[in-house]
Amino acid sequence: MAKSAAIYTLGCKVNQYESSAIADLFRQAGYEIVDFEQHADAYVINTCTVTHMGDRKSRQIIRRASKQNPAAVITVTGCYAQTSPGEVLEIPGVDLVVGTKDKSRIVQLVEAYSRGKGPVNAVDDIMQTDCFEELPVPTEQGKTRAFLKIQEGCNSFCAYCIIPYARGPVRSRLPENVLSSAEELIQQGFQEIVLTGIHIGAYGQDFTGKDIDLGWLVERLAKLPGLTRLRLGSVEPHDINNALIKAVSEHPNVCRHLHIPLQSGDDEILALMGRRYNTQQFTDLIHKINQIMPGIAITSDIIVGFPGETQEHFQNTLKTVERSGFAGIHVFKYSPRKGTPAAEMTDQVAPQDKEERSKSLIELGNRLAHQFAQQQVGKELKVLVEQPYEKDPNLLEGHTDTYLKVLFPGDTGLKGQMVRVHIQGVKESTLKGRII
Ligand code: 5AD
User: Into which family does the record put it (predicted)?
Assistant: First the structure.
């Protein structure tokens, strides 16, 4: 009987991408991939540690796997495994911990462990790593959108953030590999490619002597024949240069959507966070992008309750966010991460204050998202048809390039095609319309 493996993913898009690649590696080694709720010979938990919730959820899932099949090999990888291998190994049931740079070796490590020959703690120092670990580019059949990882690591060391310690320094994937993977994905029938990474705006920084950055790469990808849409993951404000703006604005297949993390709308807090811009510079950037690309969707991440954040600072964040016209925001409650400078700061914010600030910022975010969606009513928009709408099979669902979900009547045969939809209504931030 074939051996079986089950994978659970916590956290970000990069983790999801890498889990799909790990699943492909197990398949290549003859394993059958089963649902995580099923009995499996090997369980892999790809963890997250960006906040304490990541750690907590990771531990829960590990315990669940060990209850399902106490005889299974339980492997823990990802950011929590990388930063706290000892803590992870102490969780009952854990057999093997693998760091973030050895995901491509996971099947070998599992098999070596099963034969009683492998290490139990395979995590080593990530800070010394200097090359991009190649993994198979995962292809989930039948989807319209594919993710493509172009870069690993981060050198920014923002005061709150554990990720540089979990992912190591910036390593960019060679452009020829990125381009050939993109071509393969297009060949396989994907209409949309989403560029992911830990700090994609740092793309190329580690290629000494070459003039290669994210704008350069986007320019080349956008020109690939047959690529209907190219979408960018999160880009830091200081990484958005003219070359990138030019590449996004001049190629109609590059989505008019940028996710630009603001983190705080107060200058003192931004400085304490170690961010390299102030609110004026951020607002100017947004203004410039909007002037060049009217109607573009700009979304953002904001942390509430960073140490030292007073009500006044928070009010400044509300004002900056209000003025930004964001098409949506993700709100994070600050979580102290051991080993980061902010965790040592003395004026930590009380949990109930974080909770309240988070609630009011989420409310503002929802209002802005609704406003942005409302502006689309009456327009004719291009929508990439993705799948039947789960709650009503008579409707199809797809997204605009600005990443708004659109529902409309139509035939399932349209899947994967770009259609023009007349937008007639909006509920929260979902659009409804009819194909023209
Ligand atoms: N606490 C809360 N949120 C955090 N983020 C990063 N580190 C922390 C932390 N310690 C958020 C940032 C980042 C997003 C991916 O996670 O907003 O943009």
Answer: Belongs to the methylthiotransferase family. MtaB subfamily.
Does the pTM surpass 0.85? The reply is yes
Residue 139 has pLDDT above 80, yes or no: no
Q: Check whether residue 343 and residue 391 sit in a common domain.
A: no
- Regarding whether 241 and 164 lie in a shared domain, the answer is yes
Q: What is the C-alpha to C-alpha distance for residues 332 and 97, in angstroms, rounded to an integer?
A: 28
Question: What is the C-alpha to C-alpha distance for residues 362 and 73, in angstroms, rounded to an integer?
Answer: 41
Give the pLDDT confidence of 255-300 residue by residue, as tens digits: 999 999 999 999 999 999 999 999 999 999 999 999 999 999 999 9
Cβ–ligand 1 contact at 156 (below 6 Å): no
Cα 87 to ligand 1 centre (Å)? 22
235: CA distance to ligand 1 center in Å? 14
Q: Which two tokens stand for residue 180?
A: 């050939």
Residues 147 and 243 in one domain: yes
| Cα 43 to averaged position of ligand 1 atoms, centre (Å) | 28
Nearest CA to ligand 1 atom 13: 301
DSSP characters for 272-299? HHT-S--HHHHHHHHHHHHHHSTT-EEE
Residue 341's domain comprises 277-375
